[in-house]
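INTERNAL TRANSFER SHEET
From: sequence group
To: structure group
Subject: Response regulator transcription factor

Please process the attached sequence and return the structure record in the designated field. Keep the field labels unchanged so the import script can parse them.
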Amino acid sequence: MRTVLAEDGALLREGLAALLDRFGFQVVATVADADALIAAVAEHGPGLVVTDIRMPPGFTDEGLRAAVRLRRANPALPVVALSQYVETSYAADLLDSGNGTGVGYLLKDRVGDVREFLAALRRVAAGETVIDPEVVRKLLRRNPLAGLSNREREVLGLISEGCSNAGIAERLVVSEAAVNKHVGNIFAKLGLVAGEDRNRRVLAALTYLRDRIPR
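Return from structure group:
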């Protein structure tokens, strides 16, 4: 099974590659960052991608965003996210991609048996969905604003007050370009896609206001 492996830690990357090779996975590329992952998949056309989530340069969710991008380009590409963390910002997008088939999300610290891990990879490659129960619990409890930084929440709060980007920049004493970047990040994290027939500012503001209503 032709496999591309993305992991920024050199020792773990080489150890996983050796393990996969030993048990019948043909590792055609090992890479250390999200851009290299995209390039390796384009070059090798693998039957399986295994990727860490937090990779250079920001060590936030670069690997997860790359996985979502790969699945949008090719919904049939089996992808397993392997991480120490549950990144809720794009996890739902990954698990929803390709009608939710051929995708996995496993937590490194909860992989207790090598053979079970390898079996999970084979199941994903065969089109099944394999998700760690802790990931499911975190997603079910997810606050839609949980993935926003403090500054992004501040910007979204001002959007909900009807402020323009220029007005937000004046209020926060930052450049309008910085505000534009924050707004773009907010739309991306809330899953508000450009080009659709809807007002993303209004929907973002409604999400913010709904979160503030006492339950």
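Handover comment: The first strand starts at residue 2 and ends at 6. Residues 176-189 form the longest helix (14 residues).
Transfer complete.
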